[in-house]
Amino acid sequence: MKFRTNIALIFALTSLVWPSALIAETRNIVFPVAGKSTFRNDFREPRDGGAREHLGNDIIAAKMTPLVSTVDGVVSYVVRPEAVWGYSITINDTDGYQYRYLHLNNDSPGTDDGKGGEANAYAPGMKRGTEVKAGQVIGFVGDSGNAENTVPHLHFEIRAPSRVPINPYDSLVASAPPGSIQVTGVGVSHKSSGEAGVAEAGFVFVTELKEEMRGTAIRELQSRLKNEGHFTFYLTKYFGPITKTALKKYQRANHIAPTGVLGFETRALLNNELPLGGGKLRLEEELFEGMKGEAVQQVQLKLEALGHYSGPITGSYDDIMREAVRRFQVAKGVTPSGHVSFNTWNKLNEAYSLVPIPQVGGELPPAYAFTRALSIGSIGEEVKMLQKELQGLGFFSASVSLTEYFGPITHAAVAEFQAINGIESIGIVGPKTRAALNAL
Length: 440
Description:
It is a single chain. With 440 residues, this protein is α+β, with helices and mostly antiparallel strands. The protein has three domains: 3-200, Glucose Permease (Domain IIA), CATH 2.70.70.10; 283-364, Orthogonal Bundle (Muramoyl-pentapeptide Carboxypeptidase, domain 1), CATH 1.10.101.10; 381-438, Muramoyl-pentapeptide Carboxypeptidase, domain 1 (Orthogonal Bundle). Helices cover 28% and strands 11% of the residues. It has twelve helices and twelve strands. It has helices spanning 3-12, 20-23, 169-175, 216-227, 241-253, 264-270, 294-305, 319-331, 342-352, 381-392, 408-420, 431-438; strands at residues 37-39, 46-47, 52-53, 57-61, 66-68, 73-78, 87-93, 98-104, 131-132, 137-140, 153-159, 165-166. The strands form three sheets. Strands 1, 4, 6, 7, 8, 9, 11 and 12 form an eight-stranded antiparallel β-sheet that branches. Strand 7 (87-93) and strand 8 (98-104) form a beta hairpin. Helix 7 packs across helix 9 (342-352). The two termini are 44 Å apart. The relative contact order is 0.10. Mean pLDDT is 79; it is low at 1-22, 191-202, 273-280 and 359-366.
């Protein structure tokens, strides 16, 4: 079984009995709550009637109490928008350990309205890749997600580099201010599963995602791309042209061949298997002539960018590709075997990371300004642009041809767009709908 698959299983099997050797480990950390708080050892307590285990410690504190980074590290995950487990942020240290903070504040100051947004959850500047120092404020205590209707608290986890959970209690005790430790106490009760320790808290992409696909993983992908500044539209569960373009931009920015497909390299990066700012993308198996797949396609694209390959990008390892691999190996002083060993793969990635990122423009059409009312029976270019916009957002089926006629299919797509965006769902493009479309 491959290492990547093991990681996915670790996240998915939340009732797994974790190795006891890791549970007692103590990390040298700064206490994560900068204010009066209490906590106890509730690690591995049964939740949901014994269906799962609590894989962290709950630290009870007043709402809006500052949360600080426990270590010098890098932000590796930030929830945007609020998820079922609430707002959360994850920090990786230089040793590869993860520190997870869940249920950050989602309320306006002085209320429990659930309308506080990211500005009241996170400190300014918190995004994936942000470097933080131990003791730096990163967010605020709250009760977001499935912690609503509970006492405000921070669910705090520590994960080993293998992503196996460690009991944070000893680390917290060693760093805690006087008076914060409780020997016994009432546990925090969440209304449903979905808190830290389940797969969603560190969403793992386990399958290839590409254009025309649908599902919750697509929405999570869009959320990650939006967090990186590459996706600027409404989140949907549809992988359309806009998602593909955003993914290609993300791949270019991270020196991954821009296929527009969520293949294993991009999954590895999004799943936080790699140290940010460095590290090698793992090859799952060595590649030989006769093999096919996304890994072969990645090699072809990278060899093409490096000037060693001029054949078609097929994803099939043929004799043309074998000779291209040999040319690259000779150039890098590697035995010219013609197959992609792990050493060749690493050198290929090192060379590709030095290729300047192209400034690609024009992949998205210029913003179209909708200027008039549209309804069943309307005809013209503006109707076609409306269909195109709705198609990119996942409301207008990609299998339906774009036309200049506003018929029942367009009417239904407009009504769905309106319902999602809080506009009266009448299927007519009026001032509010035009304003929402023009804001995209």
